[in-house]
Amino acid sequence: MRRILITLTAIIISFGVRAQIEEPRSILEIGVAGGANFSSMEFQPTVRQNNLMGYNGGVSIRYTSEKYFKMICAAQLEFNFSQRGWEEDFDDKTGNSFSRCLNYLEIPFFAHLAFGKEPHGMQFYINLGPQIGILLGDSEEYTGEWNIDSRPSATQNIYGKQIDNKFDYGIAGGIGLELKTKAGNFFIEGRYYYGLGDIFNNSKTDDFGRSANTTISARLGYSIRIL
After folding, report:
1. What is the pLDDT of residues 153-167, one digit of tens each?
2. Pair 25, 65: CB distance under 8 Å
């Protein structure tokens, strides 16, 4: 999965850079967007989980450089606040629960490829590219008659464990619809993030060999052209 995502990103970005300019554009847009995250972690050893719901929101800058055949090619940079993390699935009837929320400043850099009408009308688009994140803080929540000894011995060290790596990186991609009007642009997007880095150290002597973020996001946004 990791190799496939990296290869797809490299192909799309290199295609945008090397493609012959058929119809030049020079359009600069700024926007705001926000929505919901549904996050979990890829752990080794495995931890039973439910998706943790959080929020995301931020600003974007998009520069459209050309239209190649019917594909409108742009680069998009974002700065977002994003709540990720996980909620453990206890698979019992005690009412116990545990969740950990991780607050990130995330910075994706996308190849933005759109198809549809311009300058006004509906467009379908694809975003794909690398993303980095910086952990701003985190919190844990316990409910019920908590007893750590009742948890599987292989994962008991997860509770209260300090985050080792505050820098995160991975691949993000999304698809969406954007309505361009004289009053601005309105869009809706679904997005997936696959983390390549681990939040905990992963040497042979550490507790986890893998501890990576995965997030599905739903976003609504608005942007305007400034150039």
Report:
1. 777 888 889 999 999
2. yes
Q: What is the CATH number of the domain that holds 105?
A: 2.40.160.20
pLDDT in tens, 61-117: 999 999 988 999 999 999 999 999 999 988 666 677 899 999 999 999 999 999 999
Largest CA distance in the chain: 66
- As a whole number of angstroms, the distance between CA 168 and CA 166 comes to 6
> How many Å apart are CA 126 and CA 119, to the nearest integer?
18
Q: Domain range spanning residue 98?
A: 2-225
176, 181, 183, 188: CA torsion to nearest 10? -10
Mean pLDDT over residues 191-196, rounded?
Answer: 97
Please give the tally of structural domains in the chain.
1
Q: Which of 67, 189, 186, 27 is nearest to 122 (CA)?
A: 186
Q: In angstroms, what CA-CA distances link 171 with 72, 119, 144, 153, 168?
A: 22, 30, 36, 32, 11
Q: Hey, CA dihedral for 7, 169, 131, 20, is it positive or negative? A: negative
CB 81 within 8 A of CB 107: no
Q: Parallel, antiparallel, or unpaired: how do β-strands 121-143 and 97-116 relate?
A: antiparallel
CA pair distance 108, 77, nearest whole angstrom: 6
Rounded distance between C-alpha atoms, residue 89 and residue 199, angstroms: 20
